[in-house]
Write a structure and sequence with these properties.
globular; 45% helix; two-stranded antiparallel sheet; 19% strand
């Protein structure tokens, strides 16, 4: 797991390419990569397994929340409170 984390960079496109290559996306239909913009300024992506989550719920309940989270030094904490720790 730690080796995987070392492959992340500050470059969004490079990170998406890494995941796409690692999971053979889009050829691998089991993986979904949903890209969106947070707070109208930061590119973000949600990567999940097809069939393990309802796509409408992800769009309505998760991505819509994340699109509106203000970007600042507390963004990660805000996301955890809004999404993961209701």
């Amino acid at each position: 797991m730690m080796e995987l984390l070392k492959t992340f960079t500050a470059d969004y496109k490079q990170n998406i390419a890494f995941f796409s290559d690692s999971f053979s996306f889009p050829k691998n239909k089991d993986i979904n990569i949903k890209e969106f913009t947070m707070a109208g300024e930061k590119k973000a992506a949600l990567i999940y397994l097809h069939g393990m989550a309802n796509e409408q719920t992800i769009e309505k309940e998760l991505i819509n929340i994340l699109r509106n989270v203000p970007i600042d030094e507390n963004t990660t904490e805000k996301i955890l409170k809004l999404v993961l720790l209701p």
